[in-house]
Amino acid sequence: MKPYLVSLAAGAVVGLLYSVMNVKSPAPPTVALVGLLGMLGGEHLIPLVRTWLAAGVH
């Protein structure tokens, strides 16, 4: 749970800094969220494939 809170806090701090400095996010929110979804999928894909290969499922 702690990594999630640290990540949320870091994101909030960066968002506040962007707001104070009047800087727009480098990516539209939807694009950024889709990118994060892709990162999460990729992160979980390798362990899933390893499990399948270890179980002999092809």
Condensed summary:
This protein starts with a helix and ends with a helix.
Describe this protein with a few key phrases.
58 residues; elongated; 2 helices; mainly alpha
Order of helices and strands: HH
Query: Main beta sheet: strand number and arrangement?
Result: none
Count of discrete domains: 1
Determine Rg (CA atoms, Å): 17 Å
General description of the model:
The protein has 58 residues and is mainly alpha-helical. The protein has one domain (2-55). It contains two helices and no strands.
SSE topology sketch:
Elements: H1 2-20, H2 29-55
